[in-house]
Amino acid sequence: MIPQLERALIAGHDVVLLGERGQGKTRLLRTLVGLLDEWTPVIEGSELGEHPFEPVTHASQRRARELGDALPVAWRHRDERYAEKLATPDTSVADLIGDVDPMKVAEGRSLGDPETIHFGLIPRSHRGIVAINELPDLAERIQVAMLNVMEERDIQIRGYVLRLPLDVLVVASANPEDYTNRGRIITPLKDRFGAEIRTHYPTELDDEVAVIRQEATLVADVPDHLVEVLARFTRALRESSAVDQRSGVSARFAIAGAETIAAAALHRATSQGEDVAVARPVDLETAVEVLGGKIEFETGEEGREREILEHLLRTATAETVRGHFRGLDFAVLVSAIENGSMVTTGEQVAARDFLTGLPVLGESELYDDICDRLGATNDGQRAGAIELALEGLYLARKVSKETGGGETVYG
């Protein structure tokens, strides 16, 4: 979709981005301001930030005639030339377009004086960018008020018709389902957007992981293999027939999951006296417990939500294990467990206690190989690596697992 957006901007078209939640539509719109000149001259004190050589309002034109070359000039940074509005149902025409300012009338101006107008958000974005998020939530009568602004670039406020040569880029975001659910974009307004671009979720696993790493605020170390599990989990949800794909599975799902397991790791480190807080596979269950509300399931899946989430998490974990441990021979560990050894872990089991409780494997270097595969360098990372291997053995039905009382026992 990036080439589509680039062509739309080069053509000077207004743009609407259509896509499910959590696809980065708003983030993308906010980056557009980086295409503007860093600083630009404006008439000091003008409401619309007009260029000193091209005043468009009556007030600025009058000042330019009176002051000539003495017209005061200010410099505006490009960040000030981007305006954003969430299209809430209570948004009014005055908010977007403008209205008569009673204070200016009270100062002695007549109602027929164009300078009594208080301009709304779109005119104030002259020589800049205005973004409207969730456009279908805007009442249809308010959308009608935008028609002239977007096509003829004139302003109609009550009895006034102002021919202002506005230079503004209007961009908007919407969910395709919003056309029929909460509201819709009226046909004449859709026609005025020069480009309608469909957004999408990341298509590659590495991109999904990169988004999590970029956006998540982590209070503990979350190893790469756990981020990969969350990324695979999210992608599995997007492909599941049990999940309402019209609503989508937001990128915020995996981001919140990474932040949750980091918090669980910090909680354990604080209560168990660990020096370094490191997330482990056992913390993934804490994410499932709190993230279910971010998913919209199909109507026939009532009561099975937790079961679906746990199944897809197991699938994501198994895929990650296969990707990282392919070629390793776990026979010596499986044999030790079959001979009666048990391994206990849990949300509140410290990494050192977990490592101490591992069965002795004689001369085998299996534990070192597991840690090397995942780049584990401290106790928390080593414990997490071996936990992932044990979970992989359980999912491959090589060992059993019992969970209860906050503990997980592999045996």
Keywords:
411 residues; alpha/beta; Rossmann fold; 2 domains; five-stranded parallel sheet; three-stranded antiparallel sheet; 18 helices; 43% helix; 15% strand; elongated
Strand and helix map with partners:
Blueprint: H1 2-11, E1 15-18, H2 25-31, E2 39-43, H3 58-67, E3 73-77, E4 82-86, H4 93-96, E5 98-100, H5 102-106, E6 117-119, H6 121-124, E7 128-133, H7 140-145, H8 147-151, E8 155-157, E9 160-162, E10 168-174, H9 187-192, E11 195-198, H10 205-215, H11 224-239, H12 251-272, H13 284-291, H14 305-325, H15 331-338, E12 343-346, H16 351-356, H17 366-374, H18 379-395, E13 401-404, E14 407-410
Parallel strand pairs: 1-10, 1-11, 4-7, 7-10
Antiparallel strand pairs: 2-3, 5-6, 8-9, 12-14, 13-14
Helix pairs in contact: 10-11, 10-12, 11-12, 11-14, 12-13, 13-14, 14-18, 17-18
Task: Please give a structural write-up.
The protein has a five-stranded parallel beta sheet. A three-stranded antiparallel beta sheet has the order 12-14-13, covered by helices on one side. Strands 2-3 form a two-stranded antiparallel sheet. By secondary structure, the protein is an alpha/beta fold. β13 and β14 form a beta hairpin. The protein starts with a helix and ends with a strand. It has 18 helices and 14 strands. α13 runs antiparallel to α14.
